[in-house]
Amino acid sequence: MRITIDKRPIPGADKTSAKPSAGSRYPFTVEVSDDATVDDLKAAIAKQVKSMYPDRQRLSYGDKKNILESGSALSKYSIGDNDTVYIKDLGPQIGWQTVFYIEYLGPIIFHYLVYNFPRFFYGTTFEHSEIQHRVYLLVMGHFIKRELETAFVHRFSHGTMPLMNVFKNSFHYHMLSGLNLAYWVYSPASAQGTLLAAKLGNPTIMAILTGVFVFAELSNLKTHITLRNLRPPGTRVRRIPYGYGFDIVSCPNYLFETIAWVSIAAMTRSFAALFFLIVSTGQMYIWAIKKHKQYKREFPDYPKSRKSMIPFIA
Fold first, then answer.
1. Which residue(s) pair with 5 in the sheet?
2. HSE, side-chain direction, 13 A CA sphere, residue 13
3. Is residue 305 a part of any domain in this protein?
4. Peptide bond preceding 232: is omega within 30 degrees of 0, i.e. cis?
5. Helices (H), the chain
6. What is the tally of structural domains in the chain?
7. The domain boundary residue, chosen from 91, 114, 147
8. Beta pairing partners, 85
9. How far is CA 102 from CA 112, 143, 146, 150, 201, in A?
10. What is the pTM assigned to this prediction?
11. What distance in Å separates the CA atoms of residue 244 and residue 224, rounded to the nearest whole number?
């Protein structure tokens, strides 16, 4: 069947007199089979317009602007011969896996540099305290774990994101959990021999908080593995997750990540750690609410007792 590809008209424009601008490639037609999917249509568009690779396209149909979801059949949207599908150029894209590598690499670099080269950042050298050494190992372990999960665990429901977004996303990690956190936590104010180091270095409290951190990290990993196992390789299948953590909240991965950073904030008693905890928890809570609503909208049998991120509360 033949399908017309066009850009959605500007509201209020005179549709009867509107004409394509000079050099415009829209509208144009593509041919697909009667049982074609949205992915088939995107491939046909990309074949005709080389710059519009599938991940760069957002397709919609009808006056209600129904977004066509990858993997769905065109018949699901009652699209037939000689119908018009509208396209939006999402701009240059970057793979989500690459984005994650970039985001988590920043804190690894900043914590390594600030901890190991204090003269460059503080103008002096000193011996790090036990609490500083402990936090360094835990934070480095956290972000190295995230890099390994990106490589070997995560299966992404969306292949790409707009290229410019990587700078906004990276700021959160590179600056807040990277440079800002490292600069204040590893400063001479809590170095070996200071009153603050002695106050923070209670062995029992350090052991408890380290145990909480390790528990949260391992629990977070378990939830990521659960999510991975829901999606067969090479697909974007979505299913209801069950099991450890998922029986009480929709996003236990965010819950356990929050617990991990609570332990870091409690261990350091640093305003920088507290600030990052507040910002990151707030952002994860927003994501959790969005994911929770998506689950409920997509799956009519989704468990009604689950909260989004905070058990029994929200």
1. 28, 85
2. 11
3. no
4. no
5. 38-48, 96-116, 118-122, 130-152, 165-171, 181-185, 195-200, 203-230, 252-268, 271-298
6. 2
7. 91
8. 5, 61
9. 16, 11, 11, 11, 33
10. 0.83
11. 11
Residue length of the chain: 314
For 276-312, the DSSP string reads HHHHHHHHHHHHHHHHHHHHHHH-TT--TT-BSSSTT
Give exposure, 124-154, as e/b (b: 16+ Cβ within 10 Å): eebebbebbebbbebbeebbebbeebbeeeb
- Cα 132 to Cα 144, 158, 198, 204, 280, distances in angstroms: 18, 38, 11, 16, 22
User: Position 268: which residue type?
Assistant: T
Q: Are residues 49 and 84 in the same domain?
A: yes
* 307 found inside a domain: no
State the residue for tokens 């790090």: 128
Per-residue pLDDT 10s for the chain (314 aa) are 999 999 887 665 555 544 544 446 889 999 999 899 999 999 999 999 988 988 899 999 987 678 888 888 999 898 989 999 999 998 888 888 999 999 999 999 999 999 999 999 999 999 999 999 999 999 999 999 999 999 999 887 667 888 888 888 898 899 999 999 999 999 999 999 999 999 999 999 999 999 999 999 999 999 999 999 998 876 667 889 999 999 999 999 999 999 999 999 999 999 999 999 999 999 999 999 999 999 999 899 999 999 999 999 98
Q: CA-to-CA distance for 115 and 272, rounded, in angstroms?
A: 16
Inter-residue contact 224 to 154 (CB < 8 Å): yes
- Give residue 10's domain range: 2-91
Long-range contacts of 213-219 (CB under 8 A, 24+ apart): 213/138, 213/260, 213/263, 213/264, 213/267, 215/259, 216/256, 216/257, 216/259, 216/260, 216/263, 217/141, 217/142, 217/145, 217/256, 217/260, 219/244, 219/245, 219/252, 219/256, 219/259
